[in-house]
Write a structure and sequence with these properties.
With 107 residues, the chain is of the alpha+beta class. The chain has three helices and six strands, in the order αββββαββα.
Length: 107
């Protein structure tokens, strides 16, 4: 779940909703800040709330400041999940790479 509010404000506004999420990215996106995996800007906070979130996002979730990794693609069976905030050109690059493997991505 992504919210532009701080964790504390979001929890106060929707106390029944946040605990239903596996992971929450909270805080205001700040253009010009270094990019961070899954969070967009490095000032945003990533909270991994379940074992599933730790399993899926824990290894690279807190990319080093300035890390340019912006999206993560996870395939589970026949389903693909994409999380994160693509930077300009990321989706086109993904489409080209998938197409070279015989997979068509329709957005």
């Amino acid at each position: 779940m992504y919210t532009g509010y701080t964790w504390e404000t979001a929890l106060r506004m929707a106390p029944a909703v946040l605990p239903l999420a596996d992971a929450v990215v909270s805080g205001t996106y700040m253009q010009g800040r270094p990019l961070a995996t899954l969070r967009g800007s490095d000032n945003k906070r990533l909270s991994l709330l379940t074992e599933l979130a730790v399993e899926r996002y824990g290894v690279n979730a807190h990319g080093a400041a300035g890390s340019m990794a912006s999206i993560q693609l996870v395939c589970i069976g026949e389903t693909a999940w994409m999380t994160g905030i693509p930077t300009p050109g990321d989706m086109e690059t993904l489409k080209k790479r998938l197409k070279s493997s015989g997979i068509e991505l329709r957005l």
